[in-house]
Write a structure and sequence with these properties.
Helix content: 40-55%
Shape: globular
Number of strands: 3
Distance between the termini: 40 Å
Number of helices: 11
Radius of gyration: 17 Å
Order of helices and strands: EHHHEHHHHHEHHH
Strand order of the largest sheet: 1-2-3
């Protein structure tokens, strides 16, 4: 099985840099509305699709615009993000770039047939994150010394408006219909042990989200 990085789904080494937003460059953290934001950015002919789900350091290494424009990302409640990742992994196409087709069917079936509380009570999230980047910590994507502006998943459009007001450039208007929408259980349906395990692994993500959502 291939490791999490480089992500075989979107390798910057073989991606062509194209014109995008005037001032902003997205660090697309999986599970954090990146599909909807990429669609909004691509109104201007930008190609944010080719390098999604990559760490900020790799983006800066591969693309000049990542070094010259303002990096930004979306930060999400780690419990909600973990549940979305659990649902996302029930799809074979999630696993196809990482494993064989036969293994992808098995992996997706295991997620689809599981109970979220039981899953998060028993899974080793640290090990899972090494093979499925949807479970990688949000903070792991922000591995650069230069500042990365952060906006909350809970107020996306307001956050994008604030970035454009601060850094200039054309407005970024989210599509009315969400990209990659997934139905998932409520966080309230999780057992106390499942919640505790999620927050233990995503402790830094939770602290980050608590700070960002207050901005």
């Amino acid at each position: 099985m291939q490791a999490n990085y480089s992500n075989p789904r979107a390798d910057p080494a073989i991606s062509e840099e194209k014109a995008a937003h005037d001032t902003l460059f997205l660090v697309h953290i999986p599970g954090n509305a990146g599909g909807s934001i990429r669609k909004a950015l691509c109104q201007y002919g930008g190609n944010h699709r080719a390098y999604h789900h990559q760490k900020a350091s790799k983006l800066c290494q591969a693309f000049e615009s990542a070094r010259t424009k303002q990096l930004f990302c979306v930060v999400r409640n780690p419990i909600d993000r973990a549940l979305k990742s659990w649902v996302w992994c029930s799809r074979p196409e999630t696993w196809n770039p990482l494993v064989s087709s036969e293994e992808a069917q098995v992996y997706s079936a295991l997620f689809a047939s599981s109970n979220p509380s039981t899953f998060f009570e028993r899974v080793n999230l640290a090990s899972l994150a090494t093979v499925c980047h949807h479970f990688t910590r949000q903070t792991d994507y922000l591995d650069v010394t230069q500042p990365v502006e952060m906006i909350s998943f809970d107020s996306l459009q307001a956050g994008l408006d604030r970035l454009v007001h601060t850094y200039g450039g054309r407005p970024v208007v989210l599509p009315s219909k969400k990209m990659h929408k997934t139905d998932r259980p409520s966080a309230n349906s999780l057992s106390k042990l499942a919640v505790s395990n999620i927050l233990d692994f995503y402790n830094d993500d939770n602290a980050l989200w608590e700070n960002v959502r207050l901005i």
